[in-house]
Amino acid sequence: GNSVTQMEGPVTLSEEAFLTINCTYTATGYPSLFWYVQYPGEGLQLLLKATKADDKGSNKGFEATYRKETTSFHLEKGSVQVSDSAVYFCALQGGKLIFGQGTELSVKP
Amino acid sequence: GAGVSQSPSNKVTEKGKDVELRCDPISGHTALYWYRQSLGQGLEFLIYFQGNSAPDKSGLPSDRFSAERTGGSVSTLTIQRTQQEDSAVYLCASSKLAGERQETQYFGPGTRLLVL
C-alpha cells in the first residue's frame, strides 16, 4: 500500500541556517505530493504541493521537488526564521491523504 | 464560509459515553474528509464523503465509529461507547472535488477529544 516516511525529529536549528527535511514515499500510480505545516496551537495548513514528476512546489521560501526516480519530496529552505518553528508533515494523495509521521522543527534566535 | 469549521473545539467525556463531532466544510466543496491525529498513531484517515455518500470508510477503527453528511454540507462523526484510546484530535478537511489526486484539502482547526 501507499506510505510516506519522514526523517524523525525534533530538528533544532539556529536562525538563518539551511533546512532539509527528508521525505520518501511508496505509491502505486502517480500521486500528488504535499507538505503541510502545523504551527503551535493552530490547524494544518498547506505549505506547498507538486502534482507530477519533476514539478517543484514553493511557498514562503520553502521548496520541494517531486523526484520519481528516488521517490522523494524533500523540503528545503535556505535560511530559516524563528517563525518557521512548527511541525511539518509530508503527505501523498491518490484520493485520501496519507501522512508521514511529522517532523518538529525548532528554530533558535 | 471562509474556512472549514469544527465544533466543539474541545470535548471531555467519560468512558462509555457517546460523542458527536461536527464539521462545516467550505461552501461549494463536494468532498469532505475526517482524519484523526493522536500521539501514538500520527495522522490517520478515517472516512471521506463525496456529496452525501461515503465511498471510502476504510479508516474507521471500529463499528463504534460512524459518520454522516446531510445536504452535501455539514458532517457529523459519532463515536459510541467511547474508550480512552479514542482520545485524539479529530480533523475535518474539505476539497472541491472528491477522489482527485491533485485537489488540495483544506483543514479545520480540529476537535480535541479527551476520554476520561
For the secondary structure, the number of strands of chain A is: 12
Class per helix and strand makeup of chain B = mainly beta
User: Largest interface by residue count?
Assistant: A-B, 25 and 24 residues
* Rounded Rg of chain A: 13 Å
Low-pLDDT windows of residues of chain A: none
Uncertain residue ranges of chain B: none
- What's the overall geometry of chain B? globular
Distance between the termini of chain B: 34 Å
Q: Rg of chain B from C-alpha positions?
A: 13 Å
Mean pLDDT of chain A, to the nearest integer, reads 94
Strand content of chain A: over 45%
Q: Helical segment tally of chain A?
A: 0
Give the beta-strand count of chain B.
Answer: 11
Structure write-up:
The complex is a heterodimer of chains A (about 110) and B (about 120). By secondary structure, chain A is mostly beta strands. Chain A is built from no helices and twelve strands. In chain A, strands 2, 5, 6, 10, 11 and 12 form a six-stranded mixed β-sheet that branches. A four-stranded antiparallel β-sheet of chain A has the order 3-9-8-7, with no helix packed on it. In chain A, strand 10 and strand 11 form a beta hairpin. The termini of chain A are far apart. With about 120 residues, chain B is an all-beta fold. Chain B contains no helices and eleven strands. In chain B, about 35% of the residues are buried. Chain B is about 0% helix and about 50% strand. In chain B, strands 2, 4, 5, 6, 9, 10 and 11 form a seven-stranded mixed β-sheet that branches. In chain B, strand 5 (about 40-50) and strand 6 form a beta hairpin.
